[in-house]
Write a structure and sequence with these properties.
With about 150 residues, the chain is mainly alpha-helical. Helices cover about 50% and strands about 10% of the residues. The longest helix is centred in the middle third of the chain and has 10 residues. It is globular, with a radius of gyration of 15 Å.
């Protein structure tokens, strides 16, 4: 597992909405995010989420021409580390991060990993809770996650 895990706002918001915020800590122990993302989240973050400012602001501003400022800050911060995993749900940001050769996962990937690590017994109850929020995902992706987890 990568040493550094950087989360965008959507992952934080979704786990907060489904009342499973601590699942992120159980899977990754600690996360890093940026002040921009912390501001977008809008609530006090727990101590296991470290807030770090991007050093290369010019790179961040450049990335903002392609994705929103929270995602741009996460990707710019990831560029400052060697072994990093980005938690991103937005398709445009995921595509950009992939082109930049970053390892990525999203909310469903975190849930899948929690099941692999035996932190949760089933993924379906969490996916059902996610679908009650504004989380948008294609049916075939949900089917694939359920299949991967024998559900």
């Amino acid at each position: 597992m990568p040493k550094i895990v950087i989360s965008d706002t959507s992952t934080l918001i979704l786990f907060h909405k489904i009342d499973e915020f601590n699942l992120l800590q159980k899977v990754y122990l600690e996360l890093i995010t940026t002040p921009e993302i912390a501001e977008e989240f809008g609530e006090k973050l727990p101590d296991w989420i470290n807030i770090q400012t991007v050093s290369d602001k010019k790179y961040q501003v450049f990335l903002e021409t392609q994705v929103d400022y929270g995602e741009a800050s996460a990707i710019a911060l990831a560029a400052e580390y060697d072994d990093v995993l980005l938690l991103l749900d937005d398709l445009k940001a995921r595509k950009l991060a992939t082109r930049l050769k970053f390892k990525i996962t999203g909310t469903l990937g975190v849930i899948h990993k929690a099941k692999q690590m035996s932190i949760i017994d089933k993924v379906k109850p969490l996916i059902d809770k996610l679908l009650l929020t504004d989380f948008r995902v294609a049916d075939n992706i949900i089917e694939e996650i359920l299949k991967l987890n024998n559900e």
